[in-house]
């Protein structure tokens, strides 16, 4: 299974970027994973920025991908629940899953409607840079669960 991480904006250098790279590296042993950055629409008013970034994300999605959009209004599921969903997709022959993290103003309804799963990591709000690292850890945990590795206990 291939995993794409679609992020609005660049990943800022520093400890969070190092943590993101660490979990991507760990996951590479079990699945192909790549990071794709979509340009921010900086300088636009918030509604325009949301629209432009949402359009860019939609344009970056590929036919046949399962799409997981991270959004504060999404479902909160356990790590085992995410692993179960990913395992079911794998067993159904899904070849590629893309996780999408938007910009500061989130997504339009069109992006959420394109998603196969709208996921909230928490009821709390986190910085977008930190969410990238948390998501990468959860993807690593997912594959550890699916491969019955002792990481998740």
Shape: globular
Q: For this structure, what is the CATH homologous superfamily?
A: SPOUT methyltransferase, trefoil knot domain
Question: CA-to-CA gap between the ends?
Answer: 23 Å
Low-confidence segments: none
- Please state roughly what percent of the residues sit in beta strands, choosing from under 5%, 5-15%, 15-25%, 25-35%, 35-45% or over 45%: 15-25%
Record the strand order, biggest sheet.
2-1-4-3-5
Bin the helical content. 40-55%
**Can you give the mean pLDDT?**
95
Question: Helices, strands, pairings?
Answer:
Blueprint lengths: L1 E7 L6 H13 L4 E7 L7 H15 L5 E10 L3 H13 L4 E6 L7 H6 L2 E3 L8 H19 L7
Parallel strand pairs: 1-2, 1-4, 3-4, 3-5
Helix pairs in contact: 1-5, 3-5
